[in-house]
Amino acid sequence: MKTRITFLLFMITTISLSQNSERWKQYIKKESGKKSEKYYLTSLENAHHNEYRIVKKLDNTFCIIENKNLRPNQSLQNILPVNALWKLPSNFSTHKDDKQYIVATDTIEALLTDLKSMNISDIEILDNHLVIIKSDSKKIIDEIIALSSVSSISQESLKPKGESKIIDQNFSINYINKANANFPLLTGENQIAAIKDDLFDVNDIDLLNKHISSSTQSSIVSSHATAMATIVSGLGNSSALGKGVAQKAKIQSSDFLNIYPDAPETLQGATTQNHSYGTVIENFYGSLANAYDSQLFLNADLTHCFSSGNSGLQGYKSITGNFKQSKNSIVLGCIDQNEVIMPFSSKGPAYDGRIKPELVAFSTQGTSNSTALATGIITLMKQHHKNINNSSLTNVLTKAILINTAKDLGNAGPDFTYGYGNINADKCLKTISENRIISGNLTSGQTNSHNITLPANAKNLKITLVWNDLPAAINSNISLVNDLDLEIISPDSTSFLPWILNPDAPEQQATRGKDKINTVEQVTIESPESGLYTINVIGSYVSNTSQEYGIVYEYEMANEFEWNYPVTNDNFPYDGKTISPFKWNSSFSGVSGQLSISYNNGQTWEIIDNGINLDREQFTYTPTEQKFSKAKLKMTIDNTDYVSDAFTISYDLNITTSLVCDGTTEINWDKPANVASFNIYRLTGDHLEFKEQTTNANYTYNDGKIYSVIPVFDDSEGIKSESTLQYVQNSNCYFELAFAEVFEENKVKVDASLFSLYNIKMIELIKITNNTESVISSINDINSKTFSFLDNVPVKGSNKYKINIILENNNVVSSLILDTNYLGNDLFFVYPTLLRKNEQLNIEAKKEENAIFYLYNSSGQNTISSPLLSKTNNISLKNTASGIYLYKIITSLGEIQTGKIAVF
User: How far apart are CA 222 and CA 197, in angstroms?
Assistant: First the structure.
């Protein structure tokens, strides 16, 4: 009778859960029984209502719960007992060979005991809740997932790889140049940024005195890690590309081979960590995503920045590494200087449909660089907030500020390619200065209302809500735990809901609606009316006591224009080499502008273009010639002129090192027509220091240090050229080229080319005969880097020479030995005449003509016949027996030369 009741109850329960649970029927236990199970399937609504502990969210309707939340004698209505298959990852597949699995547990001691009892000895303990084992799929399904000590199993790549290197560095695309102009005192001072990677080169001239030693740093130094550190806080000693965003910030390094989060105490005070690496495309919520969400939830001031990956050519859902599926982190894609996504930049959505990447930043080389840019910007933001408020900028507010101030790109509203848009460093800092920030907390079912007032002529209102969510259970199909909702009520009581996307149609434009998957919600109103706006934050479901959140808002005023690049202290081109678009902000609608440039402080103007599309907010201008000048831009809109700050037009001088010899280094550079003098800078300590000024286009020094050159014009300096390198002493000692050859059939000509004429007193040609050296010619009046000598009486056979350069201090620099063969009256020079088996025989002809080479053994038998088609020929003696051979060479004119060779 009891069996019939149980079966009936099972049927009623199944019906009550509706047919929508059919997709999860493989998890429902087939057998019935009396005992209480540990895990059950139920609806989210039922779980929330009864405050059950959710261990895995299957979708927006169903979840797995743990029975420790069930009260004694509680009815089993609306819950179904489940088997252990739900513990498996979504990417699980059968295999006979052992593969790596990450096993999660709430009781590490019990798990270790269970695994050892199953003869699993290859166990790596990651922390108190995670271990790594190796197993085939059969053992996983038949034995391991059934263990009560196992809460989930995942398969994740734990081998990171960098996702770009520094080649480009353009601060104008993310308005860092504008931030530097408006906030010149924000340099990252007293800030520490953490970089998870290999160790950076602590002796790199852009990273001197940056290193904060750490117990977690790698023993491997790599160029990728060095590039990331340089982008974040480089000193700019090497070139424009060596300048970082937060130049005075220090750098802590930790080894990315430990791909799990570093303990916060090991970060040495850093509150922003850069992760410019990836693994493989992983569309699930694994132990790594769980670990990073957990750390960020527990450490409100900590921020993790991840590169989205360089697998964008594989389409949507191409983010590399499940740790980037975490909710509370920030994921970055990359764009070019025209703010167009790089094709390789990995795209979202996240595995459960969330918006990833959240943001993009500049880099044409990979998402590693754009992420490092973001880390540098965040470092400045945290310094600025600390300076103003004497408190730390939380991750929630960091993320909200970045997202709310970003420039929308791609489809209107957020999308899965650009996220919420391109980071704007200047607007981030202005948001902090103007305190357009709201913080709050609420409980489940509570609604908080906040008010802001918009003035007349405001436009493009944008409001963003962000919260740090609790970590979801490993392998959860939906990662959202605490669900907040944003609603904006306008002065006329119109309700505006946030943008939402359809992950099943990722290319579609965003629409408005309730968001049930993201921890970021954004409302934009293009043409808001003036008056009071109410921002409602609704606690649709909060599983813990309360949920903290942050709100950031901004709006523009109509018919305003502002230059973004170039501005004060900017150079054009930005690095002295690469043209970058002029940039501006404009809130004008339906009008075009006239763009002009002045090279004389606005006294006269040259029109560049008459029909500028102001909405594009950028224009690429390529000058017809390279000027070195101060300049201004002017945009004329409806007869009103908007003039830029004075900026500098200058170019890299292309420094070359012509001499590293005898303790002296000589450098040379271009000398533009309108540049009269050059400032010489020398690396002293960790910065370049002015040494002296010169009017020459070359400079010598004897201290072996690093130098750079800056052009001087219009009573100001241009851009610093790429600094010199430190070369090994005597690695570039005068000789660029030297060689000897037969000239006019009966002479030998020795030609040479020098890198430099510095400090040369005399040049001599030395002939070497039987190890005896003699001077056969010399040059005392030296005014050219190329010269020649003639030997009018060469000897038949080998002629050896060298060139001696005598310096003013009487030191001698010699070329390598130069050797050429003079044939005299012979037609051919055959060598060596004593050679080993399989060695090549070389034949040089006096003149270019066809001939045939014959080789005869001692019996007169012809063993080799080979045509000679050029002045230099090689004959292979492969498989030729030892002995004495005669050769005969007959030219096309019938001329004959004979001789002997010996093979041994």
Answer: 9
